Amino acid sequence: MPTTGRQVQLAARPDGLPRPEHFTVARVPVPDPGPGQALVRNLFFQVFPSVRTLINGGVQGAPFPELQPGDTLPGAAVGEVLSASEGSDLRPGDLVSHWQGWREYAVVDAAACTALGDALPDPAAHLGQGHTAYTALTAADTRPGDTVLVTGAAGAVGSMAGQIARLLGAARVIGSTGSRTKAERLVNELGYDAVVLRDELIDEQLAKAAPDGIDVLVDNVGGEQLRAAVRAARTGARFALVGTLSSQLSPSSSGTTGPVELDTFQLILKQITLRGVTGAATTREEWAERFGEWLRAGRLTFPHVRVAGIDNAPQALHELISGRHLGAVIVEV
């Protein structure tokens, strides 16, 4: 059994966006699991932009607390059980998911682990954000024939949301991104009908991409893109609010708030509904079964980038925040 393992820790709070030098990869003793706990060797963990929010103080009511210098970063992980205490349903060799990523070895409460089985052809796919995308589209009551707009379409949620919207019957799917290269990939590889660029005239682009307006919004960004979606909405449009990337990835913002000014007259006159998405439309087990069926049938793909080695995790976060990658960013421990 291992006696030490590496972990990614916050070394210092950044003034602005975090960079690799604000983190350290430390080797620490691996504690013995106590009653009701399991020792898990992590195989993969997800790199996600909300780390910046945790570094800068967190958000009241969010599931993760504020990070202090010296703390190990949290995050979704997939690993193999090495040992488990008596009375646990876990057994050595079981594949599980949990929230103690950014480390080689994790001692986790058995109740906080989800046994994964073989529902998905690739264990790393359990770290995809298709479940969040599906939940958002369900919350927005996506219907056959709808025109759907997904902001932040090249991210972990957005790269799945466009594909799932199509499977739910959307007639037209539009995305937004900041890169022409990503825009081309979203159309050519992920089935988007059109993509608008965030740094250009969004209203004019949306008028061309959706001349009759949009019925559904999956919003991962907030800010000006959310305001533009209100202007482009049809009567009765349904908005699912998932993220605030415009704030989280802004050097001038703390990343802990997502302020945006909306035209209330338009919300009222167009009868737009806005719903924050934090829950789940299905259980993880039900989603994994559906996701696995779609993957094996070739009806959707899991866009992601794999980064080899925990030592490269801080650089992977920097690249994610810089907008280098399309899809989920996963570290292969």
From TrEMBL:
<feature type="domain" description="Enoyl reductase (ER)">
    <location>
        <begin position="16"/>
        <end position="331"/>
    </location>
</feature>
<dbReference type="Pfam" id="PF00107">
    <property type="entry name" value="ADH_zinc_N"/>
</dbReference>
<dbReference type="InterPro" id="IPR020843">
    <property type="entry name" value="ER"/>
</dbReference>
<dbReference type="InterPro" id="IPR036291">
    <property type="entry name" value="NAD(P)-bd_dom_sf"/>
</dbReference>
<protein>
    <submittedName>
        <fullName>NADP-dependent oxidoreductase</fullName>
    </submittedName>
</protein>
<dbReference type="InterPro" id="IPR041694">
    <property type="entry name" value="ADH_N_2"/>
</dbReference>
<dbReference type="GO" id="GO:0016628">
    <property type="term" value="F:oxidoreductase activity, acting on the CH-CH group of donors, NAD or NADP as acceptor"/>
</dbReference>
<keyword id="KW-0560">Oxidoreductase</keyword>
<dbReference type="InterPro" id="IPR045010">
    <property type="entry name" value="MDR_fam"/>
</dbReference>
<dbReference type="InterPro" id="IPR013149">
    <property type="entry name" value="ADH-like_C"/>
</dbReference>
<dbReference type="Pfam" id="PF16884">
    <property type="entry name" value="ADH_N_2"/>
</dbReference>
<dbReference type="InterPro" id="IPR011032">
    <property type="entry name" value="GroES-like_sf"/>
</dbReference>
